[in-house]
Amino acid sequence: MKELISIIDVPKHVGETVKIGAWVANKSGKGKIAFLQLRDGTAFFQAVAFKPNFIEKFGEEEGLEKFDIIKHLTQETSVIVTGTVKEDERSKFGYELDLTDIEVVGESNEFPITPKEHGTDFLMDNRHLWLRSSKQQAIMQVRNALTYATYEFFQQNGFIKFDSPILSGNAAENTTDLFETDYFGNPAYLSQSGQLYLEAGAMAFGRVFDFGPVFRAEKSKTRRHLTEFWMMDAEYTFFTHDESLDLQEAYIKHLIKYVLDNASYALETLERDTSLLEKYVNEPFKRVSYDDAIDLLQKHESDEDTDYEHLEHGDDFGSPHETWISNYYGVPTFIMNYPSSFKAFYMKPVPGNPERVLCADLLAPEGYGEIVGGSERETDYDVLTQKIIDFGLDPKDYDWYLDLRKYGSVPHAGFGLGLERMVTFVAGTAHIREAIPFPRMLHRIKP
Ligand code: ATP
Ligand code: MG
């Protein structure tokens, strides 16, 4: 099979005869001519079969037989096609294949997802097949590029990949969203975030990141929440919160730029406005404190085009507030220094303002919501122990975590990015369910 090429590489072979392994996505034509829309996971393009060419090449009988096979191919039949690559300005891909031979590899009968419109539930029930469509293929290519670019960025910045466990004997921070399971007669919990373990890694290795699935029993149905999603957490020592924001901004810019440079075909398929993505790469992100953001929201709440609820200092943002703020600035925006009461126990207070903590959420513009959450961590053993108690947690459960403040505690900070949130933002997808191959949500665990 080595001589097969990928559709995405077709432009390198203009004028040559090539072989491609693919599936028939669609078919059209009449009389002497047949058009096949082919896909192979890298791209979609068209192959054209002209009956007289087949007769000339294979003789009357075999030529007609081959042309007949092409005319009767059904959707998702797998084939190996041979043909000559031609430039073709009229087609979206810019190239097409002048077909000279075809071999059917696997038949396909009554593929359920036809080119007509289908409802979301139907598509979700057939997710294993829906993944073959051009839009889903493009989204997964964006996801793949983001994954690769994450490893590249942290490698370039001196981080070591440090894998946090998925099973844990205690909750990381939020006991209400925990998935519990049985661990040989004792309760165990699926990880909601690798962060606490990553802090142990940072004290051992300086700069660490993890990247893997986390689980949250989110019972609300939103366009932004999955119950299983992939999180990238980074943690680094001798780092302040401001330095952390610089690193986060560099990371997000690196991700967007990588997709622009390496997945342009996918972005084109998705009809993503790349001028906006370029703007996010080239312009500085906005940084605004939680309290200033509340003031700003209050100032604009009776504007004609706003439709969010009034907020007081101390209230949490809803998604209409997040959307409004990030659109107001038009670039990814850090909301800094939230009230300590609605953030995790391990965050360090703002010097001189114990009601606020040194943290930030990064809001994506265009309504894509929060993509990153990060903070500087409390370093003092006694303060942290008291915080754990104040949050209604048991310091005994956190003995190993508290140890990190006993033996050479240092300033450190970190952040977590939700991969699927980033995918929806960069790909321009309305709902997070399309940002992961097999989404898990309330009422959805199959396929
Ligand atoms: P939200 O307020 O949107 O629920 P969060 O404050 O719970 O987010 P963090 O605990 O800071 O989020 O998690 C870090 C990142 O993980 C978030 O910035 C977001 O990108 C992502 N994330 C959080 N919850 C989910 C979820 N249920 N599904 C997908 N991604 C998520
Ligand atoms: Mg949440």
Give a written overview of the molecule:
- Helix content is 33%, strand content 26%.
- With 447 residues, the chain is of the alpha+beta class.
- It folds into 2 domains: 7-106, OB fold (Dihydrolipoamide Acetyltransferase, E2P) (Beta Barrel), CATH 2.40.50.140; 127-435, Bira Bifunctional Protein, Domain 2 (BirA Bifunctional Protein, domain 2, 2-Layer Sandwich), CATH 3.30.930.10.
- The strands form 4 sheets. The chain has an 8-stranded mixed β-sheet with strand order 6-10-11-18-17-16-13-12, sandwiched between helices.
- α4 crosses α6 and α4 (134-156) crosses α13 (419-427).
- The chain is elongated, with a radius of gyration of 27 Å.
- Bound molecules: adenosine-5'-triphosphate and magnesium ion.
- Adenosine-5'-triphosphate binds next to β11, β17, β18 and α13.
Q: Termini distance?
A: 31 Å
The neighbouring-strand order within the major sheet is: 6-10-11-18-17-16-13-12
| Total beta-strand segments | 18
Largest sheet: 8 strands, mixed
Strand composition percent: 25-35%
What's the helix count?
13
Q: And the CATH topology of the largest domain?
A: BirA Bifunctional Protein, domain 2
Oligomeric state of the chains in view:
single chain
Tell me, what's the shape? elongated
Hetero groups: adenosine-5'-triphosphate, magnesium ion
CATH-scheme architecture of the largest domain: 2-Layer Sandwich
Spell out the CATH superfamily of the largest domain.
Bira Bifunctional Protein, Domain 2
Structural key phrases:
447 residues, alpha+beta, OB fold (Dihydrolipoamide Acetyltransferase, E2P), 2 domains, eight-stranded mixed β-sheet, five-stranded mixed barrel, 13 helices, 33% helix, binds adenosine-5'-triphosphate, binds magnesium ion, transferase activity
